[in-house]
Amino acid sequence: MTIADVAALAGVSVGTASKALNNRGKLRQETRARVADAARQLGFRPNEMARSLLSGRSFTVGLLTTDHVGRFSLPVLLGAEDALGAGEISVFLCDTRGDAIRERHHLSALASRRVDGIIVTGRRTDSRPPLRQFLDVPVVYAMAPSEDPRDVSVVPDEWQGAREGVRHLIAAGRTRIAHITGPARHHSAQVRAAAFRETLAEAGLRPAGGEVMFGEWNEPWGRQAVRHVLHAEPRCDALFCGSDQIARGAADGLREMGVDVPGDIALVGFDNWDVMSTACRPPLTTVDMELGELGRVAAMSLLEAIEGRARPGVRRLPCRLVIRDST
């Protein structure tokens, strides 16, 4: 099957068929559609090397991540692949493991493969140094924004997500709400804590126990922290946790203390990590950062940048509250 067969079925010249299949030239939309339909009927796929030479593109992009566990980068990758697959673009996944030397190595390898662009992601939302000085292709930063406002960054709106979680607890009649979260040095912990305080203040409430409890992003900290909270405020009736891991640890700790969830204390997490949120007892109400959508939007933003239509700045995507039995 050749492009001449496609041209004959579509009733156009070989040159017109080539322009339509490679998205070149000034053709009427009906002509492009007719050629595309003929190619589908015949099962024709253009030679990738010829396609690359004609367009000056490799139809590949790199996805660079610091998240070696894959908890955050894999959903982003899947969302990006869904968007890029429609344009028959392949994705190379490179894990830097947070190592600057490994990152340079992967950037060199991606450049040698002539990728059309790169999506950079990671496991945290702290801003990161830009890569512009190492690359001459478009870069989009997903999850962790670039420090340079001239770059294109797509991030979850953690402020909005935290407010949704706290408002849900207030709407359920909870008035003595505590917040247990991760390390104070992390951007996510600070943003979620600030949103927690502001949302309580708007309702005329103060944090139960007096202060936000910063610690670690893990279950042992959740189990330990609930004891501190109930010692400081025995009448606490709700916990907003900075992650699902913390929330699951808190749920275990409360159960060990004979405290009923949600009867005595309602519980909200953050991340909607299935391993934690659905295995929690009871299943956890939590905030979903919609990482698949984040990956899709990052991929579409990269395609725009590749086509010379980059939109610099930070774009924040809304989070979604997922209500389960813990509230």
Automatic annotation (TrEMBL):
The keyword Amino-acid biosynthesis does not apply. Signal peptide: none annotated. Residues 1-55 form the HTH lacI-type domain. GO terms for molecular function: DNA-binding transcription factor activity; transcription cis-regulatory region binding. InterPro entries: HTH_LacI, LacI/GalR-like_sensor, Lambda_DNA-bd_dom_sf, Peripla_BP_I. Keywords: DNA-binding, Transcription, Transcription regulation. PANTHER family: HTH-TYPE TRANSCRIPTIONAL REGULATOR GALS, LACI-RELATED TRANSCRIPTIONAL REPRESSOR. This is LacI family transcriptional regulator. It comes from Streptomyces hoynatensis.
